[in-house]
Amino acid sequence: MQNVLRQLIGQQVILGTVADEPNTPPLLFLVTIDDVNDFLVTVTDPNTNITNVVAISAVTAVLFPPGPEIELEPPVDFPGECHCVERPMRELLKTLITSNVNLRSRQGSFAQNVSIQRVGLGIAYGQLDIGGGNIVDIALSICEIAQVELP
User: Of 50, 69, 104, 137, which shows the fewest CB atoms inside 10 Å?
Assistant: First the structure.
């Protein structure tokens, strides 16, 4: 996720975190990414000028307008938790590229009709209609995905 967030410095995003209540707008809604360093992301709300620093390990997803080409890190198999949590879900999502799926996070949030486009190390990348025909790109932390509803 750190790699994805670095590529979005200066962009206005919706940043989902483990602190968000399920199925409600994220606390960090339309914030600007100011800095990404040492597994921390710094964001500022342009309406309030309040700055927040978030542990990247707590980021569940980042949503942003289509446009910037985001490069994903290639998959690497690590032992331990990554091997039993990230790898199998990544491999499943890889088989669902070009599919629309419903996803439930470990915190209980539900994303409907996510169009999976690519997967990389720890990241599922796709597009999501957030209502009213507004399409956004989304990078989801694979480690935070608890359930995939298959098409």
Answer: 69
pLDDT reported for residue 69? 87
- pLDDT level of residue 3 (50, 70, 90 thresholds): very high
DSSP codes of every residue in 34-84? EEEETTEEEEE-TTT--EEEEEGGGEEEEEE-S-S-PPPPPP---STHIII
The H or E element spanning position 108 is none
Determine if the pTM surpasses 0.85: yes
CA distance 119 to 122: 8
What does the buried/exposed string (b/e) look like for 73-99 if buried means 16 or more CB atoms within 10 Å of the residue's CB? Answer: eebeeeeeebeebbbebbebbeebeee
Half-sphere exposure of 84 (CA within 13 A, CB side): 2
d(CA 108, CA 116): 20
pLDDT at residue 26 in the model: 93
In tens, the pLDDT along 112-134 reads: 999 999 999 999 999 999 888 89
Q: Which residue is it, tokens 């290639």?
A: 74
